[in-house]
UniProtKB/TrEMBL annotation:
Belongs to the carbohydrate kinase PfkB family. It comes from Spectribacter hydrogenoxidans. Gene3D superfamilies: 3.40.1190.20. This is Carbohydrate kinase family protein. One of its GO terms (molecular function) is kinase activity. SUPFAM superfamilies: Ribokinase-like. The keyword Protease does not apply.
């Protein structure tokens, strides 16, 4: 039984501007903005929600497949997946498109200007769920809008429980859309900001959402996370990281931990702690897929963090 992760694959082009945007943007001229920033530092990272989650699940030793649409420029990413032993079985190539791309410029105050090109991600709806995989749990993360809707319907039609993880795709959906996702899903996973937006758009509280699914998980950064399930709220502690370098991708690492726990029939206290530790490990490294560990090393870190063995 495997996890199927639906979502994006992307290249993250990250640039550092060694100054402050505020020194170059005139507040009274923003209506006619025309600026250029010299960025001596540039790095290209492998990213995308599905790519990040399946990478983290692979580190844990979990059995999972990513499903997504990629462009003609995907070869470097594909070669890395092959080298790591991560399956590309359910990736569909869109030869006339680029793989999704994010261009992120950060200044010395950690302000960011981001441009995102969805590229092949917009074709996610052209790829249905596979018929040749025994899926125990699914996950729908940010992707093309139509693809997210169709994949949720397909999971629901097959009776496969899935985590609805709207993330940065949440603004694409109105209250009725979100209610439909929740009613189809087995689980909902959001951060604290997204949880407030979900409540505003649906008119439902976290507890009311939890009545419609098996669990609602709300991450709260350094303050840990909450799991709303069976009429109760379970508090999951955070884990002190070795360093705080880059929060990007921590949510994806956390969700891989949830998938691992669900696929292995673990209770929420344990699944949440695995997820929490995954986020702590990720934040100590720059980039979304540059942290490494073996399952045995993770088990040792878990015991150090929580005082008992997995």
């Amino acid at each position: 039984m495997s996890a199927l992760i639906c979502g994006s694959f992307a290249y993250d082009n990250i640039m550092v501007f060694p100054d402050r945007f505020s020194n170059h943007i005139l507040p009274d001229k923003v209506h006619m903005l025309n600026v250029a920033f010299l960025v001596p530092e540039l790095r290209r990272e492998f990213g995308g929600t599905a790519g990040n989650i399946v990478y983290n699940l692979h580190l844990l030793g979990g059995d999972g497949y990513a499903m997504g649409t990629v462009g003609a420029d995907f070869d470097p990413y594909a070669e890395r997946m092959d080298r790591l032993g991560i399956s590309r079985r359910y990736l569909k190539s869109i030869p006339e498109a680029f793989t999704a791309q994010a261009y992120i410029t950060t200044d010395l105050d950690d302000n960011q200007i981001t441009a995102f090109h969805p590229g092949a991600m917009n074709e996610a709806h052209t790829q249905p769920l596979p018929d040749d995989l025994d899926i125990s749990v699914g996950l729908i993360s940010p992707d093309g809008r139509d693809g997210m809707i169709q994949h949720a319907e397909q999971f629901a039609e097959r009776g496969i429980p899935f985590i609805f993880d709207p993330g940065q795709g949440l603004p694409m959906f109105d209250g009725d859309d979100l209610k439909r996702f929740i009613e189809q899903a087995g689980y909902v996973a959001v951060n604290d900001y997204e949880s407030q937006l979900m409540m505003d758009r649906t008119g439902w509280s976290m507890e009311e959402m939890a009545e419609r699914v098996r669990a609602v998980i709300v991450t709260r950064g350094g303050e840990g996370s909450h799991v709303y399930t069976d009429g109760k709220k379970i508090d999951i502690p955070s884990v002190q990281p070795a360093a705080i370098k880059d929060p990007t991708g921590c949510g994806d690492a956390y969700r891989a931990g949830l998938l691992y726990g669900l696929a292995n029939n673990m209770d929420w206290e344990t699944s949440g702690r695995i997820a929490s530790l995954m986020g702590s490990i990720k934040i100590a490294q720059s980039g979304t897929q540059n942290h490494h560990f073996t399952p045995d090393e993770f088990a040792a870190k878990f015991k150090d963090a929580f005082g008992y063995a997995l």
